[in-house]
């Protein structure tokens, strides 16, 4: 099954979580961090995870609730209504796309503007932070469960999403 068909499959009871941040190469993570992420996904088997990972053959013993693809359109995936959370580094494009689609976020900021972007979403009650140097099964699982189980994150993201989409003209019309 392709990544998009897997995400679209609404006959599955499981909600989807996307870790498809397009500008960060997941395959540059240390083995410890990769193993922590995979084990977190394994333990959260009530959810399905789709993860952009550039060197698919490097990963072994993946749980059944994880799909790995070398590239997927982050914006397209976030647009599916059964995607309930997004794991992201908090780059500007990721922040805009998750806000547009109203998807709450677990953020792992790395550099540049990401801390500022994260702070805005955290102040709005729409995101949870995991420090990059503290990616462990316990920390990542706790952050994911907080965003997935506590409706305040989705509720707090909704007005931000509506603000983005409630414009008198389409962006393309405004650009022309």
From TrEMBL:
Keyword Chloroplast attached: no
Molecular-function GO term, any one: UDP-glycosyltransferase activity
Family matches, as SUPFAM superfamilies: UDP-Glycosyltransferase/glycogen phosphorylase
Keyword list, A-Z: Glycosyltransferase, Transferase
Domain of life: Eukaryota
Family statement: Belongs to the UDP-glycosyltransferase family.
Protein name as it appears in the record: Glucuronosyltransferase
Organism: Polypedilum vanderplanki
